[in-house]
């Protein structure tokens, strides 16, 4: 069958066109293509406007959201700026009290407007909050967003809780079946790194979301460990915990028990920052009674500390394909950040972060415990000691299926000896 060259593009179905459009860069590709004719522009609207931005600062005004004709095409909506805080009592007598009073009376209207707008975006999948000023998100806004019926993912970059705008003691909160929740405050924020109100807000959210979540990423400082033991996680596949070791060290229950209800975990990432005062203990302490390994389908495991009495490495399942034993943050990143902070912070207020990583001898002990795991990817970040070359020799013999080896190797500050690159390469 002959198809005229002017119509050959039209024989592609919507899925094929979407795949084609997604391969094009926005500028110098997709944007120019969309200007060629009305039919092509109409067919690529879902890709052109799948990610749009909204102004949190101007919430309630017509320009705060993208134009309504674009709403049917939005998949990800990112709020930038900050939500105007509720009016404090001492501000009622200020010079602009009248304007503030009008704004305060309109806040409930803003929530109704936002709820209506989000429900008018049928393809909306994810909402992102970029709270660069660390002012937090008012609870009514969180309630409205998470209650949007077709929403499936929420990401908060910045501060989650909002002082003076916290949930009631018994919140009537019925969220949508959210499958992905990410809360990532600034990794290098200064003390205090968490607040009791923040822990309460996160506990309320996770208690309601635990039944549907598949991906969860939270900071360790406000993780509700006591609740995570009780709640069921029937769908959770990925868990990412990052932050300092303070709350982890104060928990009376080891992580192997705290996370024991997450039976379907495929990815477990524990990026814990060490400090002079707090350093995490074993995930599975020696002698601690656990009936069985809690994550039998685990495929990827990332940990930032090794403990000689940790039994978790003795029980890693045969499904594991990726193992990462590293520092967090990377030592070179943390070194640079501490230098930046030291130039603008007085000494007593400097963060107590510890520049450390596992030793090669400790890393070798861990690898010997999990020698039967058919790893495909191995990532190591360590401080060199006398077992450095022996560790590489063991990796070659113990992991014949290994495809990728990533190494971050640190020597003592005064060690200027050459790196045995040739000797290491000859082991392969």
Roughly what fraction of the amino acids lie in strands? 15-25%
Mean of pLDDT: 83
Q: Write the H/E string, N to C.
A: HHHHEEHHEHEEHEHEHHEEEHHEHEH
Major sheet strand order? 1-2-3-4-5-6-7-8-9-10-11-12
Please summarize the sheet with the most strands: 12 strands, parallel
> Which term fits the overall shape?
globular
- The helix count comes to 15
**Radius of gyration, Cα only, in angstroms?**
26 Å
Instruction: List how many beta strands DSSP finds.
Output: 12
**Low-pLDDT runs:** 86-105
Helix/strand-derived class? alpha/beta
- Helical proportion, percent range: 25-40%
The span between the termini is 56 Å
Can you describe this structure in just a few lines?
This protein is α/β, with parallel strands linked by helices and 428 residues long. The chain contains 15 helices and 12 strands.
Characterization of the model:
It is a single chain. The chain has helices spanning 14-22, 26-34, 38-43, 45-48, 97-105, 107-119, 139-146, 196-209, 225-230, 246-250, 255-258, 331-342, 360-369, 388-398, 421-426; strands at 51-55, 76-80, 126-130, 153-157, 180-184, 215-219, 238-244, 267-273, 300-303, 322-325, 377-383, 404-410. It is α/β, with parallel strands linked by helices and 428 residues long. The chain has a 12-stranded parallel β-sheet. β5 (180-184), α8 (196-209) and β6 form a beta-alpha-beta unit. The termini are far apart. The model is unreliable at 86-105 (pLDDT under 50).
Lay out the secondary structure:
Layout: H1 14-22, H2 26-34, H3 38-43, H4 45-48, E1 51-55, E2 76-80, H5 97-105, H6 107-119, E3 126-130, H7 139-146, E4 153-157, E5 180-184, H8 196-209, E6 215-219, H9 225-230, E7 238-244, H10 246-250, H11 255-258, E8 267-273, E9 300-303, E10 322-325, H12 331-342, H13 360-369, E11 377-383, H14 388-398, E12 404-410, H15 421-426
Parallel strand pairs: 1-2, 2-3, 3-4, 4-5, 5-6, 6-7, 7-8, 8-9, 9-10, 10-11, 11-12
